Structures
1.
Amino acid sequence: MNNHSNLQQSRILFWIISVTITIFSFQLIRLQLIDYEIYHKKSTNNSIKIIPIPASRGVLFDRNFKVVVGNKPVYQVTVIPAFFDTTNFQKIEKIVEIDSLAQLLVGKAKFTYSRYKPIILSKELEFEEVNRLIEYQNEIPGLNISIKFIRDYGYGVNGSHIFGYLNEISSAQLKINTNYEAGDEYGASGIEKSYEKYLHGQEGKKFAVVDSKQRFIKFLTENEFDVPAIKGNDLVLTIDKQSQIAAEKMMEGKKGSVVALNPKTGEIIALVSSPSFDLKSISALNKKEWREIVNHLEKPLFNRATMSIYPPGSSIKPIEALAAYNEGYITEDSRFNCSGGITYGNHFFGCDHIHGSVDLLRSIEKSCNTYYYEVFLKMGYPTWLKYFKMFGFGRKTNVDILEESSGILPDSNYYNRYLGKRKWNTGMLLSLSIGQGELAVTPIQMAQYVALIANNGKTIQPHFVKGIIDSKSNKYNELIFPEIKIDVDQQKLNVIKKGMELVVNGAGTATNIRSDLVKIAGKTGTAQNPHGKNHAIFVSFAPTENPEIVVVVLVENVGYGSTHAAPIAKKVIDTFLRLKE
Amino acid sequence: MKIKENLIDKIDYWLILPIIGLVIFGLLSLKSSTSENVLASGNFNKQVVFIIISLIIFLIFAFVPSRLFRLFSIPLYVISVLSLVFVMIFGKTVSGAKSWIDFGFIGFQPAELSKLAYVLFMSFWLSKKNVDINQPKYLAITTILSIIPIFLILAEPDLGTVIIYSILFIGYLFWAGISIFGLFVIISPPLILFISFFGSFAMMIGLILIIIALFYFRKDVFVSLSIFISNITGILLFEFAIKLLRPHQQQRILTFLNPAADPLGSGYNALQAQIAIGSGGFFGRGFMEGTQTQMRFIPEQWTDFIFSVIGEEFGFLGSIIVIILFAIIFFRLLILAQKLKNRFESFVTLGVLLTLFFHFLINIGMNIGLAPIIGIPLPFISYGGTAFLTYSAMMGIIISFYRTNSEHV
């Protein structure tokens, strides 16, 4: 194929390449040699820099539109080592305190490749503190004062486990979430985490003319290119600030939790896990302090109200009574004789007192164990399991924060695994009937169970957020949560409620909180604790005829429910219903 | 054909040494533009890994018998077309174009690799003894074989790669010895299409020019008329095709055709790139000293605007060295393309030359303000694994040709 020597084509290509290279070379000569001064000046005097406009996170309001978590502007002082004269430190130090480590870093960085990277001298300063420094900003090259918003927790509510804390966004998350900037905060727990996409505010941009030392000259006039900052959406919570504060106060110095919710709507009125932590100081912790708080014996970061699991003790007896009653194993008048306990197999199962002949109402009022052993034997473990499943034990309530455990509802698979197939029977599980044994529940699950009783067999999934205020349209959108229903005979449920009413208002186990202002119904419980003193439990709802609030209180290692837990519940009920003593 | 035994003589230093120089410039600029960037600080190490992998591919290709490439050209073309279809359906969208296949741990761009497949396939096809490009039948087949991948890439849309393909296509016709009339038949429809974007008046002028050209060629009435009609239907078909696309796809294509509509986007980048290059002066500001680069005035500078890092930090001296290194590669490839006696090898070498040269032309052109902003990387310098791998494979093939024919060149 020698006829194709391509000589002519080669010549044309040769010229194309040669001309291109010549033109490029001339252009480089023009840019870099002839017009060097112009471009050098442009680079030193006239550069456009994107200035971020900070956007605040959404505010958290309580159910009455009172702020519980807000935002405040803070100022951050940074320097770019390459442009900064370290003798200026003295000037700055007269006005604001400077991190001495940062000072050292600036001095060092001046001679390294990272000298263009801003170093933070001081952060989270108030306006008054930086006011005079702002005047210096254009006098001291390399000095920069920027504003950002941080969370303001100064509204009298701790709420640490509800609201949750923030972390700086990690670079891994930054790659996935394109609407975040480095240094942005990101919800790490509680509502801040589960509602992150609503709460996050998106930083805006303004284009400014700066000189090569990054000193501000003026904003670009064509502000059509500006991107406005978008504030995060505000959330209206279901929390009642007053009740929350009251509950927090009552739990001070104690370990345990309080869950209060509206049985009709599932709205959580107050939720306390004690000990708690301080949201304000947690952001300032260093690594060592952080490790300390994480490994603290009392686990302050842990949300006991939704994550801790306890044996519920006698507090669940109403479910068992309802199960046997509703399935026809007993009537209201069925009586069992209590002589201080029963013997089953080789074991003796005790009761606190010798109650004599006990009917359904008295069994709840007096919390007679013997009655429930007998009922359990009569209806059998499968019926027990069916009703506890129905009331939501053994699975998450799906409350709208992500920290939650499902507890343990021991089903037959569970026993087959631990005791062996066919190696167990109803009698061996007798302690389940008084809320001991393998059953383990979270306080929020208990609140849901009481809500189902109080509101006649239906309630709504517990939640913290009532609605979202869209920051762009300013419209309020109410959130809708799924309904939860159980199918029981209303007449029979009323008897159970009556029994719970007698606990407080009859001759029951919690008469110490009887009140003339509101009729409270409840049930005491004592969770056995092999490691120390028992946990006190009290579950309650009020007012009995038309319940508006359910309160579950659990105090660890103190003893009896009526003495330690019931008064806390009463206080929360009184506060929520705005009753004066 | 005689194969030289001495290993030293098997490698063409006129190609390899300039490439090593370019890679060094690339790594320095990448280091400088990414080291203080939170999101890109890992790119330097990634690029080093890409280069090592590419080196292995290069060595394999360089020592494979050169006739094998001819055998692989058909399956490679089929695979590349299939992978372009695959990316159209399952691809991941990165900065407006659906051009990535994501394997989780690593992603790659089929359009980059398909350039190599296209080069090999076209070379195979046009070097067949019976293919005469000046016969309408063969011209039509060649056109169809080229338009398939071009349309698939246009759908992503990746305008830069479409331009490279079009240039390769025209370059191949040219190298195959097409007549000026044949070239006119192929070029006039896209040209009139492009002109029609500037309004109906411009389109009218274009059509008149085409009529004049047809008279000049003095072909018979039937041929002239059918070419004129095909031009007009081409425009109408394109208008129709655009209407079939969803609005955001239309928008993407239109923005690509008129990048000036986004002044603080790509226009801003071009301006800042020029300031960076101009302020470099003769010696440059020094490694990691450029304020334009270090203050991150140009977003993602390590990809399409990496030449501005060289301009700012290594000055005129650095920039001109880079251009000279490229020039050496281009002239060397041109000599090889002309002297290789095997038609297939000559075509492949031409394809590699055209690919590299037009990347160079568009990329540096836009950096120094002589070409519109089209997203296209600078070979051997810009950050990007698939592109580097593709160019290394191309170079490996050229070295393999050189090795088998070295006594001739």
2.
Amino acid sequence: MKLLNEFNIKFLSKSENESFSRIVITAFVSQFSPTVEDIADIKTAVSEAVTNCVVHAYKNSTGYIQLSAKYYDNGKLRIIVKDKGCGIPDIEKARKPLYTTDAENERSGMGFPIMESFTDKLRIISQLNKGTTVVMEKNIGCKPSI
Amino acid sequence: MPVTIKKENGIITVAISGDIDHHVAKEIRTQIDLEIDKSPLQCLEMDMSKCDFMDSSGLGLIMGRLRKCSQYKSDFKLINPAPKTMHILRMAGVDKLIKIENTDVTSGKE
């Protein structure tokens, strides 16, 4: 498969950047004639991943979040959200619906389940005190317009 | 803040416009809870007609207000949630716990 386009950005883990990340991914994906449904899914999945960095990875600090995406000629979109925060002690637990370590702030525990449900593939790589990388893949239904 | 709160005969109607994410959820929660705690509450209605986007932070907001309403033994109603919002509610099983009302949002619009 051939790479058609790619972006890679870095921004601070401020909650204002949650909407910023949604705008960026929407603008990037829009080039490939996605359906409205695809855009909604991708926006939601990215919002969840970036919010996790803000809320959990850099809980008591501020750090950089790296958001990148690649789009291939077979219609595959690969999104990577990376942080250098605290890491996830138990990924299996974190992936479980309604599991949260932050119930007092009304976190619903549905972040990873939503990423999983709204994309075709979700991979989480994490190391304690080193950071977490979330890789999501989604096939966008329409043919690329470029 | 993209929130308007109306209070009438013990019914609080909160209309949310725009996105509900982690960044805005806290402020929306504070505003709603301030009204709920002020005087007796019969029903809390969250009008989602103009909410374009919601993620799990919005789900947390809804679950939290539902909990709050049950403490006050009052009703909770969600009005016109978007299909994606319904998807998220169903994933968490919250759709079975709350009243959902779909009014015809297209009528009345020009």
